[in-house]
Amino acid sequence: MFITVERTSEGVRMLDQRLLPSTEKYLMLRSPGEVADAIREMVVRGAPAIGVSAAFGLAMGASDAVERDPAGFDQVMEQHYTRMAAARPTAVNLFWAIERMKQVAGEARSGGMDNKGIAARLEHEAQQIHDEDLESCKAIGRFGAELVADGSRLLTHCNAGGLATAGYGTALGVVRGAVEAGKKLTVLADETRPFLQGSRLTSWELMKDGIDTVLITDGMSGSLMRRGEIDLVVVGSDRIAANGDIANKIGTYNVAVLAKEHDIPFYVAAPLSTIDRNCPDGDSIPIEERDPKEVTEFHGTPVAPEGVGVKNPAFDVTPASYVKAIVTDKGIARPPYTDSLAALFDA
Amino acid sequence: MFITVERTSEGVRMLDQRLLPSTEKYLMLRSPGEVADAIREMVVRGAPAIGVSAAFGLAMGASDAVERDPAGFDQVMEQHYTRMAAARPTAVNLFWAIERMKQVAGEARSGGMDNKGIAARLEHEAQQIHDEDLESCKAIGRFGAELVADGSRLLTHCNAGGLATAGYGTALGVVRGAVEAGKKLTVLADETRPFLQGSRLTSWELMKDGIDTVLITDGMSGSLMRRGEIDLVVVGSDRIAANGDIANKIGTYNVAVLAKEHDIPFYVAAPLSTIDRNCPDGDSIPIEERDPKEVTEFHGTPVAPEGVGVKNPAFDVTPASYVKAIVTDKGIARPPYTDSLAALFDA
Lengths: 347, 347
Fold this sequence. Notes:
The structure is a homodimer. By secondary structure, chain A is of the alpha/beta class. The first copy, chain A, has 2 domains: 5-138, Up-down Bundle (Four Helix Bundle (Hemerythrin (Met), subunit A)); 141-346, 3-Layer(aba) Sandwich (Rossmann fold), CATH 3.40.50. Chain A is built from 11 helices and 17 strands. Chain A has helices at 32-40, 47-64, 70-85, 92-110, 115-145, 171-180, 197-208, 221-226, 252-261, 293-296, 337-346, and strands at 5-7, 12-15, 26-29, 153-156, 186-190, 212-216, 232-235, 239-241, 246-249, 266-269, 275-276, 297-298, 301-302, 309-310, 315-318, 325-328, 331-333. In chain A, the strands form 4 sheets. Chain A has a 7-stranded mixed β-sheet. In chain A, strands 11-8-9-15 form a 4-stranded mixed β-sheet, with helices on one face. In chain A, α2 (47-64) packs antiparallel against α3 (70-85). Chain A is globular and about 65 Å long.
């Protein structure tokens, strides 16, 4: 198996996902700034894993600052929160984790706790976020397994697996949940350009688990659907608006439209922490535009002529009307989502 | 400018499209077998360019065999026809060009012509196929220009340009025709995995012509359509069935479905030689399955774990119902295509 991210006595240790599948190398990050950079550079990616990594980074920042006076400690932590929040704009779990850590620190300070106590609280909270995420994924897997018939051919886009979470995965959590429930299934993995999370990460972690995996390019999904070779689609999400619109890896919307055209159910799997109740709809979700070189180069080799115009949005928005159900860690939400998602929060 | 393929005194000279955009290198092929291999290995690709290349290769084969006795000559030519036809299965222009060459040779032989005369006829016929293709593309450009409004943002998939034909292009012929008619337009080029014809070839040849080009990954088209950033789609085709179903590069069907969902016109540009009147519908078109390594490796570097399952169909079929019009060298066909395409042949 592999460890996506963990807190050790030396720092925050994470698997460098940019080098997969050829090289399995772990990086030891020794400051919150290094963790923020690793998030920006996609050493780690996937909304839940980004949240967990940020929390570990902040805990490390607090532990490293215990010798300061209280005002200096709080100021350093403010800088860490700000820098961490600037790492990537779309995944809401990042802001959710930072907010949660901030609140724990604030409450402890108000309660008269010293730096050492606050740092201990933050270390505990980060580990808690990690452990809860793992539990959430397993719950998603249990709920989602019901949606997967034995013998299904399931298409997924990008990587919403153990590598995108503290482990187990969201979309791939549904896959693992179905397999644990004794169902046999084949996963079709979109390669997911430009970063190739499907070929590099999803294929890699499913093959480690011995799950039947077939890699396709992003352009093949429609043709396979038309030929009746795909039974359902399950993807993760980086942010879900209150109305059920979902932001996910660029190319997700294409798959959703194609699924609708072929009457194939399109499911989204994500923990409640991915739902941004302050975001009324998908158009309010900020979409990150990344370096054009991700599209025009491959490992430094140019694949496009110099100077060509490029678009490289990292995410797209799929309106709720394309989503058959959202599988969360608290149960399955169905349309209309404004009501069903709110009900899961209230439960 | 560039030359896609030409017959010289030394052999058949073609631009090695596998090396673009970084290297502009021409190969000199000295036998019909070498031409067939070049077609299989995609040194040259694009249905019309494949047809022209095959014709030049057969002409070369005939010229090289003139010293044989007539029976030996005819036998050698039969071998060339067979080997050439096995190079790739989907592009109908390949079979159309071989058939045309075969017929010219057969008629000349029946008329009592000697080997030298037949070879001269075949050399002439091949050059004719080349020149007609260039003229066809220009005609497609003139007809297609009417469909393109000034200021349009036009999406294309794969490369149906000068590199896919004797020059000028089919889908990109429409672009060039519109530009020559004084219209300003932006071309959005799908990168077109796995072979990257969009980034490597379409971007390259459009930038040579100074046409505004924006490269996107195949997964971005839907999101751009939803945001109102694409006005029309124009693609080429490798084979068009009598009912208007079209086979084209894998990923074309995805674009067609997305265009329909967003009420964006989806046009196909191809000469009449791409229409296979013996093929009643798209399901009768053979679809080539290519080497999985095109998906799992990049320039020899693995991007997927060893042993993963892979699908790599080179083409998909888009049913006629998604096609707003087919722009041919003899005019624009509109639904129902069974009638409108037949009428263009009769005209």
